[in-house]
Design goal:
174 residues; 4 helices; 9 strands; 25% helix; single chain; alpha+beta; seven-stranded mixed beta sheet
Length: 174
């Protein structure tokens, strides 16, 4: 709570970065300290009603935090440095400017059956059906698996608009 009280953010952004769980095919860079810190940050933001946006590792962290599962991509289909198509679910499928193709830089995945029960699927990868976007059912928490800060086919207008809407209106999708 100290971080939230000290800095009084309009929103919390959980970024990409090191692994949450060890991948199956390479050396891991899991940071238990970061995992614990981000878990505490999520709890504090929720207690104070501050919106949370998770990007890549942030989606994975949010899913784990709420009881979901994050696993290595066992199909050995690398999602690192690729672009893939999305299938959007309601109500996000009607949002103007939503990207239909996104970049990808992750080895760990969330399968639909591994999504925390309090999260709804917002977007799936057309290629393998893995979760690419999720939204909490009751509180202002939204997460995406792609990186809006990296080059992508659609730019980052959707993500910037999402952040603005979350700061103004919380979980506007419910």
């Amino acid at each position: 709570d100290y971080i939230i009280e000290r800095f009084q953010p309009d929103a919390v952004l959980l970024t990409g970065g090191n692994d949450l769980v060890p991948p199956h095919d390479r050396e891991s860079d899991v940071s238990l300290e970061r995992n614990i810190f981000e878990g505490c940050l999520i709890n504090a933001a929720i207690r104070q009603g501050i919106p949370i946006l998770g990007i890549c590792r942030g989606l994975q962290m949010i899913n784990l935090h709420f009881g979901g599962e994050v696993i290595p991509n066992a199909e050995n289909r690398s999602h690192v440095g690729t672009v893939h198509d999305l299938i959007w679910r309601a109500p996000f499928d009607s949002y103007e400017g939503r990207p239909d193709r996104v970049n990808s830089f992750h080895d760990l995945i969330v399968k639909p059956e591994g999504l925390a029960s309090c999260l709804n699927i917002a977007a799936l990868s057309l290629e393998d059906g893995n979760v690419e976007g999720a939204a909490h059912q009751e509180i202002p928490v939204f997460c995406i698996q792609w990186h809006p800060e990296r080059p992508q086919p659609s730019g980052a207008q959707f993500e910037m608009g999402l952040i603005e809407r979350m700061v103004r209106g919380g979980n506007f999708w419910t």
